Automatic annotation (TrEMBL):
Pathway: Amino-acid biosynthesis; L-threonine biosynthesis; L-threonine from L-aspartate: step 1/5; Amino-acid biosynthesis; L-lysine biosynthesis via DAP pathway; (S)-tetrahydrodipicolinate from L-aspartate: step 1/4; Amino-acid biosynthesis; L-methionine biosynthesis via de novo pathway; L-homoserine from L-aspartate: step 1/3. GO terms for molecular function: aspartate kinase activity; ATP binding. This is Aspartokinase. It comes from Flavipsychrobacter stenotrophus. GO terms for cellular component: cytosol. It holds the Pfam family AA_kinase. It catalyses: L-aspartate + ATP = 4-phospho-L-aspartate + ADP. Its EC number is 2.7.2.4. Belongs to the aspartokinase family. It comes from the Bacteria. GO terms for biological process: homoserine biosynthetic process; lysine biosynthetic process via diaminopimelate; threonine biosynthetic process. Keywords: Amino-acid biosynthesis, ATP-binding, Kinase, Nucleotide-binding, Transferase. Residues 53-332 form the Aspartate/glutamate/uridylate kinase domain.
Length: 472
């Protein structure tokens, strides 16, 4: 066990020294921290310095050099080393997807051309952000990684699309963090850049890699933890890792939130803040609904349900490591850090949730019927589930009847084609494409009426708290 009494004493000394050297108005905050520290030490046997935090910046927050510059006050306000987890610039992951698609379709020249365009965009970004000395260093580093990208294009092959995808797409995060790194160094901040592929070890499920928790934790503590204990702040990438063979992987689209949560759990840090372009966690996506309201505090339970059913604001895997380690998650607005944002934690009291709405488009409803009139009960259900599992298809909603089984799944044409071929051997399969899955937590009859008016309802399920409708 790591927590020896002297560690507690040292931590207290460190906290008290901090009080002595900070201006008076910081005193209260530090005392609050001390209280928090003791509580956390006793309950978790924490290994690291417990007031260190993780900040996750997504693509929207660094879409332009001006936006990146605007993050400086947020980052430099930290009194302790901070761990930054950062995504690719703006929509550059989509640009990288186009590149790998062209390469796998055999249009290698087009892919190289698109890669060169993307490199120029990164160079323009660097030029706008950095002084001459730092620009030269950044351009050099970018060149190295765009060469890695070009190697990925040359090797890309449609017969191993997911593998090819990861070798190319992972470079978005590498390049964005290089730009931010040189900017922070230029500003004199004590940051070290860590290639997440050296610490996050995964299996070889390309595009949705599973993390080897124990190995990664050891590496994260040895590399990132050690540096932070020595007073260095860290900048690393979300969304990426590497297999035991050193091949790059990605953790699933929008997976940077998950990386942030994972690192916080592995290092037992104080909290994770994800900086978004919205005021906080709203009761629905403001891009789809008007009159949304911000929720001040949410429980892990509410958020994991919403994320699982497609709330884009948080990656569904983010909550588990945080809940397991009782680490709070804050959703804050990078456009106005003074806004209170949303706190996500274990217990939330005194809040009456409004209806929380998630609308997920581009779904497919599959109806699978046994050809020989055998019941769809335990034996058939386990066969069907095993098949979905083998094809790595996530089932968003299911319902079964005597001889049929209905599943609502994301529209991944390649996977569905494979699955249908397999199912057709024993079952009759019908599919309804282009449907939407509506999930409402804390629903009211009025909201359900309003959101389903003029829609064809293909499937409906409700429990006391949650109503779900597949509709067209
Ligand atoms: N419940 C919700 N509350 C707030 N924003 C939401 C919600 N559901 C979806 N969103 C969308 O999530 C977006 C932010 O997430 P995302 O675009 O993935 O950010 P980033 O790429 O910076 O991580 C918001 O602009 C908003 O449109
Ligand atoms: N860049 C990746 C990972 C990610 O999490 O991005 P963002 O934080 O911008 O959603 C993606 O677009 O999927």
């Amino acid at each position: 066990m790591e927590l020896a009494p002297y560690r507690m004493v040292l931590t207290f000394m460190a906290a008290n020294l901090t009080i002595a050297t900070l201006p008076a108005h910081f005193g209260y905050k530090v005392l609050e921290h001390q209280h928090h520290l003791v509580t956390k030490q006793i309950s978790h046997y924490f290994y690291y310095f417990y007031s260190m935090r993780v900040f996750k910046f997504g693509g929207a927050s660094i879409a332009t050099p001006e936006k990146m510059e605007a993050l400086l006050p947020i980052i430099s306000n930290e009194h302790e080393p901070v761990l930054l987890v950062v995504s690719a610039l703006g929509k550059s992951t989509n640009a990288l997807e186009k590149i790998v698609n062209a390469a796998c379709a055999g249009n290698k020249n087009e892919a190289i051309h698109l890669a060169e365009q993307l490199e120029l965009e990164h160079l323009d970004y660097a030029r706008a952000l950095l002084d001459e000395t730092h620009f030269i260093k950044a351009a050099d580093a970018l060149h190295t990684y765009f060469n890695e990208l070009k190697r990925g294009i040359k090797l890309a092959d449609s017969s191993r699309y997911d593998f090819s995808y990861d070798q190319v797409v992972c470079l978005g995060e590498i390049c964005s963090t290089l730009l931010l790194h040189f900017y922070l160094v230029q500003k004199g901040l004590p940051f070290d850049w860590v290639d997440a592929r050296t610490v996050i070890r995964t299996d070889d499920t390309y595009r949705d890699a599973g993390v080897d928790w124990n190995y990664s934790k050891q590496q994260v503590q040895a590399v990132i933890g050690r540096k932070m204990k020595a007073g260095r702040s860290i900048l690393t990438q979300g969304f990426i890792g590497a297999t035991i063979n050193g091949d790059s992987v990605t953790l699933g689209r929008e997976g940077s939130d998950y990386t942030a949560a994972m690192l916080a759990a592995m290092l037992q840090l104080e909290s994770v803040t994800i900086w978004k372009d919205v005021e906080g966690f709203l009761n629905a996506d403001p891009k789809m609904f008007s009159n949304t309201v911000k929720i001040e505090a949410l429980s892990y339970n509410e958020v994991i349900e919403m994320a699982f059913y497609g709330a884009q604001i948080i990656h569904p895997k983010t909550i588990k490591p945080l809940q397991n380690n009782n680490i709070p998650l804050y959703v804050k607005c990078f456009l106005d850090p003074s806004l209170s944002g949303t706190t996500i934690q274990a217990e939330v009291t005194g809040i009456n949730y409004p209806p929380l709405i998630v609308l997920k488009h581009d779904q497919v409803l599959l109806q699978v019927t046994s050809r020989d009139f055998s019941f769809i009960t335990e034996d058939n259900l386990s066969r069907l589930y095993a098949l979905f599992h083998a094809k790595k298809i996530k089932v968003n909603l299911i319902q079964n009847a005597a001889i049929s089984f209905v599943a609502c799944i994301d529209n991944r044409a390649d996977k569905i084609k494979d699955l249908t071929e397999e199912l057709n051997k024993d079952y009759k399969v019908l599919s309804n494409e282009n449907v939407s899955l509506l999930t409402i937590r804390h629903y009211t009859p009025e909201v359900v009426e309003q959101l389903t008016a003029n829609k064809q309802i293909l499937l409906k399920q409700e429990t006391r708290k949650t109503l779900q409708v597949v509709m067209k």
